[in-house]
Amino acid sequence: MGANAAEARLEEQWRGILSVHARTMCEIDRVLHPHGLGASDFEVLDILASGPDGTAEAVGAAEERHHHRVHTLADRVHLSQSALSRLLGRLEKDGLVERAVCTRDRRGVWVSLTRKGRDLHAEVLPLQRAVLARTLGGDR
Question: Which of the residues in the chain have pLDDT under 70?
Answer without folding.
Answer: 1, 52-66, 103-107, 138-140
